[in-house]
Automatic annotation (TrEMBL):
<keyword id="KW-0560">Oxidoreductase</keyword>
<keyword id="KW-0057">Aromatic amino acid biosynthesis</keyword>
<dbReference type="InterPro" id="IPR036291">
    <property type="entry name" value="NAD(P)-bd_dom_sf"/>
</dbReference>
<dbReference type="Pfam" id="PF02153">
    <property type="entry name" value="PDH_N"/>
</dbReference>
<comment type="similarity">
    <text>Belongs to the prephenate/arogenate dehydrogenase family.</text>
</comment>
<dbReference type="GO" id="GO:0070403">
    <property type="term" value="F:NAD+ binding"/>
</dbReference>
<dbReference type="GO" id="GO:0004665">
    <property type="term" value="F:prephenate dehydrogenase (NADP+) activity"/>
</dbReference>
<protein>
    <recommendedName>
        <fullName>prephenate dehydrogenase</fullName>
        <ecNumber>1.3.1.12</ecNumber>
    </recommendedName>
</protein>
<dbReference type="GO" id="GO:0008977">
    <property type="term" value="F:prephenate dehydrogenase (NAD+) activity"/>
</dbReference>
<keyword id="KW-0827">Tyrosine biosynthesis</keyword>
<feature type="domain" description="Prephenate/arogenate dehydrogenase">
    <location>
        <begin position="5"/>
        <end position="292"/>
    </location>
</feature>
<dbReference type="InterPro" id="IPR008927">
    <property type="entry name" value="6-PGluconate_DH-like_C_sf"/>
</dbReference>
<dbReference type="Pfam" id="PF20463">
    <property type="entry name" value="PDH_C"/>
</dbReference>
<dbReference type="InterPro" id="IPR046825">
    <property type="entry name" value="PDH_C"/>
</dbReference>
<comment type="pathway">
    <text>Amino-acid biosynthesis; L-tyrosine biosynthesis; (4-hydroxyphenyl)pyruvate from prephenate (NAD(+) route): step 1/1.</text>
</comment>
<keyword id="KW-0028">Amino-acid biosynthesis</keyword>
<dbReference type="GO" id="GO:0006571">
    <property type="term" value="P:tyrosine biosynthetic process"/>
</dbReference>
Length: 292
C-alpha cells in the first residue's frame, strides 16, 4: 500500500519535479500524482516527461489529495496555501519546501482548518538550476530534510512526512522555525549572498580588467559562479523573508572579514593562518561526515 493515495505537487520545478521523479520510481510513495502550476509551459513539460497522472492549472483540483506539497518560490507560498486549503479533504496534510520559514508558518496557521495538518519540510539539497527539466530522482538521497511543523501538530501527520522523506531517500530532523532560519542564514543564504556579491563585483570592474578577470577565471572564482547562477526570484524572496537572521549573520561575517583585513594590513601571518586552519577543519569534518 502506498503512503498516500493521492499526492499533489504545486510548482513542479527543480524540487517539485525531483519529488515527482522519485514518486514515479518508487510506487510506495503515492498511487496517483497531481501536478499544478501557473505556467502552462511547465505543465506541458510535465506531461511530456510523464511525471503526473493529472496536470492542471486549477488549484482547487490540485487540492483534492491526501498530501499537497507547495514547491513554489517563498513569496508565493502563502497565496497558494490560501487557494488550496479550503478545498483539501479532512485529514489531509499540507506541506511546503520553502528555504526559509520567516512568517510563512504563522500566516498559514491563521488560515489552517482544524482538520488539516501543516508539516512543512525543507530539503537541504538543490542545484543552481530551475524548472521541470532540472529535477532528478536522486536529489534527496542521503541529504537532510528539516521538518518545521508548528507546535502541537498531529504527531501522526509528522510521522507520515518523515516516512515520505525517507522514501525519497532523505534523513529528517525536526526544528523550530527560528533555529531553522538561523542555521540556513549561515549555511545557505550567506554563501549565496557572497557568491552574488563576488560575481557582481567582478561585473563592476572596468572594461579591460573585467574581460581579463573573466578570461583567466580559475576554479576558485568558478565555484562561486556556480551558485551565483541561481534563480533571482527564488533568492530575492529568501533574502527578504529571512531579513533578520541574514543581516545578523552578515554582520558577523563583516566583523570577521575586517579582522582578516587588519591581519593582512599588519602582515600578521599568525592570525591569517589560524583563520585558514579553522576553515580547513570545517571542510575536513564535512568530508568525514560524507556531506561533500
Ligand atoms: N533550488 C533549490 O536548491 C531549493 C532547495 C530547497 C528548497 N527550495 C525551495 O523550493 C521551492 C521551489 O524552488 P525550485 O528551485 O524548485 O523552483 P523552480 O523555479 O525550479 O520551480 C518553481 C515552480 O513553481 C511555479 N510557480 C511559481 N509561482 C507559482 C504560483 N503562484 N502558482 C503555481 N505555480 C507557481 C513555477 O512555474 C515553477 O514551475 C522554493 O520555495 C525554494 O525556496 C529550493
Ligand atoms: O547546491 C546548490 O546549488 C544550492 O543552492 C542548494 C541549497 C543550498 O544552499 O545548499 C539552496 C537552497 C536551499 O534551500 C537548499 C539547498
Amino acid at each position: 500500500m502506498a503512503l498516500f493515495n493521492t499526492l499533489s505537487i504545486i510548482g513542479p520545478g527543480l524540487i517539485g519535479s525531483s519529488i515527482l521523479r522519485k514518486a514515479r520510481e518508487n510506487n510506495a510513495i503515492a498511487n496517483k500524482l497531481i501536478v499544478a502550476d501557473n505556467n502552462p509551459n511547465n505543465l506541458k513539460r510535465i506531461e511530456e516527461l510523464n511525471l503526473a497522472d493529472v496536470v492542471t492549472e486549477d488549484l482547487t483540483e490540485a487540492a483534492k489529495a491526501d498530501c499537497v506539497i507547495i514547491c513554489v518560490p517563498v513569496g508565493a507560498v502563502e497565496n497558494v496555501a490560501q487557494a488550496v486549503l479550503p478545498h483539501m479533504p479532512a485529514g489531509a496534510i499540507l506541506s511546503d519546501v520553502a528555504s526559509v520559514r520567516g512568517k510563512i508558518s504563522l500566516k498559514i496557521q491563521q488560515i489552517l482548518p482544524q482538520n488539516i495538518s501543516y508539516v512543512p519540510g525543507h530539503p537541504m539539497a538543490g542545484t543552481e538550476h530551475s524548472g521541470p527539466d532540472a529535477g532528478f530522482s536522486k536529489l534527496f538521497e542521503n541529504r537532510w530534510c528539516l521538518l518545521v511543523p508548528p507546535p502541537h501538530t498531529d504527531p501522526h501527520a509528522i510521522h507520515k512526512m518523515e516516512e515520505f522523506w525517507a522514501l525519497c531517500g532523505a534523513k529528517t530532523n525536526i526544528l523550530a522555525d527560528e533555529k531553522h532560519d538561523r542555521i540556513c542564514a549561515m549555511v545557505s543564504h550567506l554563501p549565496h549572498l557572497l557568491a552574488f556579491t563576488i560575481c557582481d563585483s567582478a561585473d563592476n570592474l572596468s572594461g579591460e580588467l573585467k574581460t581579463a578577470v573573466l578570461d583567466y577565471a580559475a576554479s576558485g572564482f568558478m565555484d562561486f559562479t556556480r551558485i551565483a547562477g541561481s534563480d533571482p526570484i527564488m533568492w530575492r524572496d529568501i533574502f527578504i523573508e529571512n531579513k533578520d537572521a541574514i543581516l545578523d549573520t552578515l554582520d558577523r561575517f563583516i566583523l570577521n572579514a575586517e579582522t582578516m583585513a587588519q591581519a593582512i594590513r599588519e602582515g600578521d601571518g599568525a592570525t591569517i593562518t589560524n583563520k585558514i586552519e579553522h576553515s580547513r577543519q570545517i571542510r575536513r569534518k564535512l568530508i568525514e561526515n560524507k556531506q561533500v
